């Protein structure tokens, strides 16, 4: 079964610190998503990547296809960044369609203390 | 505002009872998905639908049923056959376009429904 591994599982940091969350997967994918889940449970899509790097505000996502690895970075972290960050991938299917939904990591619980 | 609406936010089920979770989207998306989230676990796919009047089982479909009579709506019924229904349920949608584009489409998520057993 294809897996998505995230690390660390839990991370507590001080406000202003640079944060890195890692995601690795096992076989070829067509897309990788980084999601943010708020304490109430609602999920927001942060990035969708198939190669390279994307930046949005203080958030940066990178992916290395050869190493099957992606990282999510948060610069100048703030208490409002506290959330669960989830990596999800769409594995390649024989038909190339990928219509069967995403495979999710278990999430990284991030707490930023003031 | 365009988005996905799930209701109710909290739901309680009595033993032997079927309950239905609502998911509505006004994003004009063709594809809709239901996921289940358990504590400490990643989301798992229950059912998905690529188009009206068609749906497919995901990884954990047993004990669940769905319908897709309208593009905007994809209700999930948790049947009495689901012996461990307590979980957080998330609905999502995406615009798949052509089959090759399916893999690259962002999924938009609802706020979720938390189901508990009385």
Protein described:
The complex is a heterodimer of chains A (114) and B (118). With 114 residues, chain A is mostly beta strands. Chain A contains no helices and eleven strands. Chain A starts with a strand and ends with a strand. In chain A, the strands form two sheets. In chain A, strands 2, 4, 5, 9, 10 and 11 form a six-stranded mixed beta sheet that branches. In chain A, a hairpin with a 2-residue loop joins strand 6 and strand 7. In chain B, 3% of the residues lie in helices and 47% in strands. In chain B, the strands form two sheets. In chain B, strands 2, 4, 5, 6, 9, 10 and 11 form a seven-stranded mixed beta sheet that branches. In chain B, strands 1-3-8-7 form a four-stranded antiparallel beta sheet, with no helix packed on it. In chain B, strand 5 and strand 6 form a beta hairpin. Chain B starts with a strand and ends with a strand.
Q: Can you count the beta strands of chain A? A: 11
Sheet with most strands of chain B: 7 strands, mixed
General form of chain B: globular
The class by helix and strand makeup of chain B works out as mainly beta
Task: Provide the β-strand percentage band of chain A.
Answer: over 45%
The main pleated sheet of chain A reads as: 6 strands, mixed
Percent of residues in helices of chain B? under 10%
Estimate the helix proportion of chain A, in percent: under 10%
Number of strands of chain B: 11
Rg of chain A computed from alpha carbons, rounded to a whole number of angstroms: 14 Å
Taking Cα atoms only, what radius of gyration of chain B do you get, to the nearest Å?
14 Å
Give the assembly state of these chains: heterodimer
Instruction: Kindly report the average pLDDT value of chain A.
Output: 88
Question: Distance between termini of chain B?
Answer: 35 Å
User: Spans of chain A of 5+ residues with little confidence (pLDDT < 50)?
Assistant: 95-99
- Number of helices in the DSSP assignment of chain B: 1
Strand portion of chain B, in percent? over 45%
* Measured distance between first and last alpha carbons of chain A: 40 Å
